[in-house]
Amino acid sequence: MKHVLVVLVRVALFALICYVFSLAADARLSSAANLTVIWAGVLATFPLVRLARRFLDRRPTVARAVWTTTCVHVGLGMTFGVPLVRAIVTHRDWRGWVLPVPPSVGEALVIGTGAAAFLTVMNLAVKGLGAPFFIALSRKLSVDWMYAWTRNPMALAAVAFFLALGVWFQSALFVLWVLVPLTPALLFFLKVYEERELELRFGASYLEYRSRTPMLWPRRPGG
Q: Which of 12, 15, 77, 116 lies 20 to 30 Å from 22, alpha-carbon distance?
């Protein structure tokens, strides 16, 4: 019964976030308000993550880590997801200096990085018995395949995909936004919160994995 309740709560939260995303995509905002959402929204990730880490450290248990992570992921849906939706649907309005890259090149990059991102999701599903976001937190520590090269292949593929979108849009400002502040906010979340949460849930096995596998930039296993 408890497991069913957890699933129902997560499904309801996921549906709520999808609804918020649809509202964000259709919203009619002024240029100033739109840029505020896109830039300041991502910056809100930093206090959110810091607050969540403090809350987790007050009583560092597995159960607390699971529920705190669910809440954090919902928050990230707002600080990452909503700005991303607005950035993508309004990119023509604020793209800035036009990158002199043929759209076909950008499209190829989007397809390639998108495929890589999909493979990381499948990797987590098969080896970690989990899914992105809070839909299903990993039940096993994923250390094989792409996760043997880097601890965060999904984040690396996501950043590459967003950069590819900027190239496809021919927008230097979109690329700049991905580099600053989106990527630093994502790395802050991974380093400050997610590493601690994984340590609580998987213990010594995660610490050993972290000691031999780079955080982001891939390295040949055993190299």
A: 116
